[in-house]
Amino acid sequence: MSTPIETDVVIVGAGPVGLFAVFELGLYDLKCHLIDILDRPGGQCAELYPEKPIYDIPAWPEISGQALVDRLMEQIAPFSPEFHFNRMVSGFRKLDNGRFEVETDEGELLHCHAVVIAAGGGSFQPKRPPVPGIEAYEGKSVFYSVRRMEEFRDKDLLIVGGGDSALDWTLNLQPVAKSVTLVHRRPDFRAAPDSVNKMFAMKEEGKIDFQVGQVTGLKGEDGQLTAATLKSPDGEIEVACNRMLPFFGLTMKLGPIADWGLNQHENLISVDTEKFETSIPGVFAIGDINWYPGKLKLILSGFHEAALMTQAVKRLAHPDQKLVFQYTTSSTSLQKKLGVQ
Ligand code: FAD
Questions:
Q1: Whose CA is nearest to atom 34 of ligand 1?
Q2: How many angstroms separate the alpha carbon of residue 331 from the centre of ligand 1?
Q3: From 40, 68, 286, 299, mutation site for ligand 1 pocket: most ligand atoms within 8 A of C-beta
Q4: What span, in angstroms and rounded, lies between the C-alpha atoms of 57 and 22?
Q5: 341 marked ligand binding residue
């Protein structure tokens, strides 16, 4: 078990709402650690619609999902948030000193005054491809994410899918792996055109192989893959491989947070509308994960919720300090924190 990290607030989820919470909490000198199961910030905006325009962010007539995330990261930079990516929040308990302990699935412990759940629709879980017997290989030679590229060094890698993840990892793992074969059911891709062009250029240079087809079977023993069978336009073919990375998209599940004993409403966490606190004092829920009468699952609603939650967390963390409401336009102390003074 690792030595606990001491901080003011642990935010579960680095989607747009979790990111903006860092800003609001930062204005009140509250230091944040964010935990996200994904490998980058931005939640749904970055994962599901990075290039789609959003038209209802105040003062941004049009901004893409990824651009919004980039702006939020820029806005919170003065508060130096610490990110723990590729981690799912699993356990949580109240300590004798009144603080909370949050645990990740990698065994890290974080101690904090308040927990802010900004987990959106829940954790994104990889969709399993319909390949018979794939369960036996999962976590041993079939993986749905890349936590450490080194784990794929000198491996014969089969990457399956046609989206950004499949293409990005084909390009990034090619220099590390012994061989890379990309498989997609057709020669058209949903991924960024630049990545697709680079992938075809690598194929031309003989650095990777690309096969049109669908994986229909796996061969191996004790969870260790030796080959995959593909149904291709030329009939059934076999590709030798000892690691497979299927990227078939993500579904959303509440995951372990569902077992924390929080009051729920149709799989969402019930909160009050004064502080956005859950049924456990000191645990807050903001953004798409929460429910209250009239809730709208909009980014701007989550931003508002982050501002009100912050007032309550400040009182909780520093009950002895007077809470002074200030505008960023006129407060020199806030401007110093933002590094603009
Ligand atoms: P999310 O963006 O879902 O982020 C939650 C994060 O928490 C994720 O990164 C997830 O990995 C992480 N997480 C969850 N559980 C755990 C766990 N146990 N441990 C660790 N991490 C965890 N809204 C608008 O306002 N305007 C629009 O035009 C608009 N268009 C949209 C278009 C599409 C196609 C979609 C899908 C949504 C759209 N939305 C729009 C909705 C908007 O994206 C959401 O309201 C917003 O993303 C919610 O932000 P969030 O931070 O609450 O949650």
A1: 49
A2: 32
A3: 299
A4: 18
A5: no
Cut 0.80: pTM above it = no
- Catalogue all structural domains in the chain, each as residue range(s) with its CATH number: 5-124+251-337 (3.50.50.60), 128-248 (3.50.50.60)
144 is in an annotated binding site: no
- Contact present, 45 and 68 (Cβ < 8 Å): yes
Ligand 1 lined by 62 (C-beta under 6 Å)? no
Residue 220: CB within 6 Å of ligand 1? no
Task: Decide: 65 and 49 in contact? Cβ < 8 Å.
Answer: yes
Does 123 contact ligand 1 (Cβ within 6 A)? yes
Ligand 1 pocket, residue 171 CB under 6 Å: no
Sign of the dihedral defined by the CA atoms of residues 201, 204, 205, 206, in that order: positive
21: enclosing H helix or E strand: helix 16-27
Minimum-distance ligand 1 atom for the alpha carbon of 289: 52
What distance lies between CA 313 and its chain's CA centroid?
A: 24
Q: How many CA atoms lie within 13 A of 102 on its CB side?
A: 30
Element (H, E) at 337: helix 332-337
- Residue 269 Cβ < 6 Å to ligand 1: no
Q: What is the pLDDT along the chain (341 residues), one digit of tens a residue?
A: 679 999 999 999 999 999 999 999 999 999 999 999 888 999 999 887 887 889 999 999 999 999 999 999 999 999 999 999 989 898 899 999 999 999 998 899 999 999 999 999 887 778 899 999 999 999 899 998 776 788 999 999 999 999 988 998 999 999 999 999 999 999 999 888 999 999 999 999 999 999 999 999 999 999 999 999 999 999 999 999 999 999 998 777 778 888 899 999 988 999 999 999 999 999 999 999 999 999 999 999 999 999 999 999 999 999 999 888 889 998 998 999 898 87
Q: Is 227 in the pocket of ligand 1 (CB under 6 A)?
A: no
1 in helix, strand or coil? coil
Question: Ligand 1: distance of its center to the CA of 219 in Å?
Answer: 38
In single-letter form, the type of residue at position 280 comes to I
